Amino acid sequence: MSFDNRVTRMLGVEIPIVQAPMGWIARSALASAVSNAGALGIIETSSGELEAIRAEIVKMRQLTEKPFGVNIAQAFVRDPSIVEFVAEQEVEFVTTSAGSPMQYTKALKDAGLTVFHVVPTLRAALKAVDAGVDGLVVEGGEGGGFKNPSPVSTMVLLPLVRSKVDVPIIAAGGICDGASMAAAFALGAEGVQMGTRMVSASESPIHEGWKRAIVEAPETGTVFLRQEKGPALRALRTERTERLARGEGNPMAELGGGVRKVYFEGEIEAGVALSGEVAGRIEAVEPVAEIVSRTVREFDETVAKLASGRSGRGDGC
Amino acid sequence: MSFDNRVTRMLGVEIPIVQAPMGWIARSALASAVSNAGALGIIETSSGELEAIRAEIVKMRQLTEKPFGVNIAQAFVRDPSIVEFVAEQEVEFVTTSAGSPMQYTKALKDAGLTVFHVVPTLRAALKAVDAGVDGLVVEGGEGGGFKNPSPVSTMVLLPLVRSKVDVPIIAAGGICDGASMAAAFALGAEGVQMGTRMVSASESPIHEGWKRAIVEAPETGTVFLRQEKGPALRALRTERTERLARGEGNPMAELGGGVRKVYFEGEIEAGVALSGEVAGRIEAVEPVAEIVSRTVREFDETVAKLASGRSGRGDGC
Q1: Chain A residue with minimum CA distance to B279
Q2: How far apart are CA A13 and CA A4, in angstroms?
Q3: B247 bridge partner residues
Q4: Closest of B48, B158, B100, B202 to residue A155, by C-alpha
Q5: Between A152, A186, A302, which is nearest B179 by CB?
Q6: Which of B15, B33, B119, B205 shows the smallest number of beta carbons within 10 Å?
Q7: What is the pTM of this model?
Q8: Which DSSP string corresponds to B271-297?
């Protein structure tokens, strides 16, 4: 059975799975693997390295003929020419995040793009719909990376937003396989976004040390770092991030110099390795194509099992 | 279509919804309404008021002919004669929580009871299975009340535990309607537990002021109170609990004298009003029978929609 809903149609994909736009990581090697698997790769701009991004998008065109998207993380890319930059790349899909949906939605839509805004609360969702977005990425607090300081879990946030808006929703936070994708659809999503699952994929450009840390993490292996100002963060639990969680030091400052060591040298204690709670469910580094195809197969199995009776697992006793 | 799975069979109920065992609240007025609706009411013992509980169980027999259960919150009821006490009540189902599953499982099973242990992590789940429990209540961090200091959301914890154990699972945390119940089943549950939803029900014995505070709360309207020692707590966000969240004062001490004022006089700022994130999804005080029947109807609609295509909401565009 093939997927056919508003997300597959708007994004032009077979499989409504979107790869999250992790800074430095969401580049052509990973994103092209996702698009080639029938899902949607996204190129990040939050690193601020726009010339490198431009080159990555050129590479994307060499690596895949399938659609892909770009993310604008507004808090990190403050130059308004980012709209022109994205429009020039001739992509059709953009997600906006970490800022007001009033800022770029109109200009992006005027440029012919389909715009989904990332929201962590109902209030933000209603504001984005008012701003004219085509859809929402609804992001539960169990996800990795930058977070609202008052996190709300996917199980609560997603059906709440679903009940109050009509636009299509891509669910993020806690999703890494077909069971969680089916749960997100039960809660009203028409697509899902995977971050940590893709960070850990074979094609992800990060150091093996970070991938290994994800594979080894238990489900309690992340910490939620609140800050006085600005966004909160969810990251892998390490000695360093536990100190930050106790209020010793400034998590945002940690994202500076240490980033490259964490990302590309695998020195997990050198900075903050962003990760969602699903690190506790990831047991191996696998190719993107395998992650995507297994997710679809599990999704089908889960839905079939649900439909065949009200029994959940259903056997035994 | 009727439910028929290990949870309905083990509990002897038509509908695999269990009411959570909130201290002082999970007494005969509420629990009998739940059992009479075809689900499972549970009587608490965490208040420690065992003589009052004994009288409540006598009342239960007058108010319902349906099955009901008892909870033993081990951290709060330290007298080992609690096993004898529960066995004497001639109930068939008990949940144990807030303590080691090694402590009472064997004695309870020897007394002929079906035992489900409440777990907040995979490690606790494996330990409970080793101790011989019949099933698990897997409790995500979005739920209200006493919590593991490293909370894991239902979307992550439930499928993780499901993939590692064979016993039936009742999902708790984030569940208040048919969509969230269907999501929990997609993640491997065969039953769900509702706490905050039942706290807010018409038959719940708490003051209207607390029920109103639940109805008015947004989805960001709870705080997670960590403690140096012992369990963490999730409670409604108030001036008092925000102070506690900033580390001013001891949350456990707040559960002392203020409890009765919060619970029965509606003075929300007099103490800590325990609540899950689903407070943000509850829009009205409703009778238990209506909550249960609507949940079942929504569950069926959600599963039918999922099965009819991979479209989530599926229409529009």
Answers
A1: A156
A2: 9
A3: none
A4: B158
A5: A186
A6: B205
A7: 0.96
A8: S--B--GGGGG--S---HHHHHHHHHH
Q: Is A153 within 8 Å of B155 when comparing Cβ atoms?
A: yes
Residue B180 and residue B70: Cα distance in Å, rounded?
25
Sign of CA dihedral A98, A101, A104, A109: positive
Rounded CA-CA distance A281/A197 in Å is: 9
Q: HSE (CB half, 13 Å, CA atoms) of A245?
A: 18
Strands (E), A27-139: 41-43, 68-73, 93-97, 114-119, 135-139
Strand ranges (E), B173-239: 191-194, 222-225, 232-236
The set of residues, in sequence order, having a beta carbon less than 8 Å from that of A248 and lying 6+ positions away, is none
Find the residue in B nearest to A296 (Cα). B310
* Domains recognised in chain A with CATH numbers: 6-204 (3.20.20.70)
Chain A residue with the nearest C-alpha to that of B162: A313
- Region of residue A206 (left: phi > 0; alpha: psi -120 to 50; beta: else): beta
Q: Are A104 and A116 in contact (CB under 8 A)?
A: no
B3, B306, B316 ranked by CB distance to A186: nearest: B306
Give the three-state DSSP class for A82: helix
CA distance B66 to chain A (A): 21
Walk along chain A (317 residues) and give the pLDDT tens digit of each residue.
689 999 999 999 999 999 999 999 999 999 999 999 999 999 999 999 999 999 999 999 999 999 999 999 998 888 888 999 999 888 999 999 999 999 999 999 999 999 999 999 999 999 999 999 999 999 999 999 999 999 999 999 999 999 999 999 999 999 999 999 999 999 999 999 999 999 999 999 999 999 999 999 999 999 999 877 778 999 999 999 999 988 888 888 777 777 889 999 989 999 999 999 999 999 999 999 999 999 999 999 999 999 987 554 344 33
Given a contact cutoff of 8 angstroms between Cβ atoms, the answer to whether A138 and A170 are in contact is yes
**Residue B248 CA to chain centroid, in angstroms?**
28
CA–CA gap between residue A306 and residue A314 (Å, rounded): 9
Distances in Å between the alpha carbon of A38 and those of A7, A8, A110, B45?
13, 10, 27, 53
User: Measured between alpha carbons, how far is B42 from B30 in angstroms, rounded to an integer?
Assistant: 9
Side-chain half-sphere of B192: how many Cα atoms within 13 Å?
30
d(CA B25, CA A184): 32
How close, in Å, is residue A146 to chain B by CA atoms?
A: 17
Q: Give the residue ranges of DSSP H helices in A116-237.
A: 122-130, 154-164, 178-186, 196-199, 208-216
Are the C-beta atoms of B300 and B3 separated by less than 8 Å? no
Contact assignment for B311 to A190 by CB distance below 8 Å: yes
Q: What ranges in B64-175 are assigned the alpha helix state H? A: 82-88, 101-110, 122-130, 154-164
Longest dimension (CA), chain B: 62
CA gap A194, A197 in Å, rounded = 6
Helix axes A208-216, A258-265, angle to 10 degrees: 80
CB B43 within 8 A of CB B61: no
A156/B278 Cβ within 8 A: yes
Q: How far is B45 from chain A (nearest CA, A)?
A: 28
